Every structure is written in structure tokens, then in C-alpha cells.
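As a warm-up, study this chain.
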Amino acid sequence: MKRTTACAALIALVAGITSLSTPSRAETGEVAVVFTKGGFIVGVGGGEGVLVYRGKRYPFTVSGMSVGFTIGASTTKFVGRALNLRGPQSIEGSYAAGGAGGAVAAGAGAVQLQNGNGVILQLSGPRVGAEVSAAVGGVTIRLK
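Now compare it with the structure written out below.
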């Protein structure tokens, strides 16, 4: 009886250690996006990007709109990371200010966005053009 109990305890211990050493299913990918935006009062934009995940490239489209004070046009070339990925499809969705997602400006040409899947995009890059904006809006990403 004691031997059976000891074997069961050893199996439970090994299973517990294995589950602790298993890496999280959420992963990080690299992202590059070119986004062009312009407008007067209502800003509309779009662009393309690529997610590099586990060594493979996944092209996607980006579309967006903002409502508020927007004047001018700009193009931004963002690069950064996609956090909390659970596969390439989890990057898809709406990244919006408020609600389930959010957008926080981190300075000129830098942004952090989150979608409903929990994916966080941390992006930065130079902005070319002249645009003044104090608008609320968001973007939608779709894999091609």
C-alpha cells in the first residue's frame, strides 16, 4: 500500500513540474504597418502590414476611421510587437479607444492598442505629412 501511495505522489509531482515548465500559449510576434490617414473633421485611413509569427509572414490590411478634430494627412510607418498572440488569427479584430479595446498615445509616432482577443500591439515609427488630430477612433485588422 505504501509503495502505491509513493508512486502516485511521484506521478503527481512530475505532472505538476511538467505543467509549471510548459511555456504559456500566448506568444509574441513582430509587426510592421504602413498607415495613411487624412481628413477634415472625419479622418479615414488605411494601410497594409505584416505579422511575423513563428518565422512565417502573415500579410494583413488595416482600415480605420476617427471622428473629432482632424485636419490634414499623414503616413506613418510603424514597427513593433504583437503580444498575447494565440495564433496568427488572433491579431484580427477591432482596436478601438474605449470598450473592450483601447488606444493610448505614447508620444509622437508611438501607440499601444488592444483588441477584444487580448492582443496588444506596441508600435512606433516616424510620421510623414501634416496632420493635427484630437479625435477618437480605431482600426480594424484583417488577415489577407
